[in-house]
Amino acid sequence: MVHFQQSTQFKHWFFDSSDKIAEIRAVVNASARERIKAIKLSSPEKGKKKSKSIKDSDLLTVDDELHILATFVTTTSQLCSSYFGFPLHVEATAVLFLKRFFLAHSAMEYDTSLLM
Fold it and tell me: 1 lies in a domain?
């Protein structure tokens, strides 16, 4: 029998501090910003002669993404309990998966409403 401390659940989803989570969020956000800028520069929009570059102020910050996540966690929770009438453990699982997904991925690259 595998002890919890040796499981992949513990290895990949338990963190020593909230600073580690903040660091992961910052890395994911910076990576998404670079990918979005690269895509925009490599593919000018049809019908336009010059492609505008994307400014940093046009993209979401880590705090913006956290605000979006908080909104969608609340909405997911409300949908699970009020609209669908799911049991609490189903609601908690849905919220947990949403949080985990957006710890590893940026809200700038995925449609949060579809994931919710």
Answer: no
- Which among 20, 98, 114 is positioned nearest to 65, based on CA atoms? 98
At 104, list the tokens.
């590893």
Q: Extract the tokens encoding 50.
A: 């010059």
Look up the domain containing 51 and give its range: 17-115
Percent of the chain residues past pLDDT 70, beyond the cut:
91
Written as six digits, the tokens of 34 are: 């670079």
Return the pLDDT at 6: 85
Cβ contacts of 44 within 8 Å, gap of 6 or more: 50, 51
Is 11 part of a structural domain of the chain?
A: no
Q: What is the pLDDT of residue 27?
A: 97
User: Which of the two residues, 9 and 23, has the higher pLDDT score?
Assistant: 23
Say if residues 93 and 49 touch (Cβ distance below 8 Å): no
Q: Is residue 64 part of a domain?
A: yes
Q: Is residue 2 part of a domain?
A: no
Domain count, the chain: 1
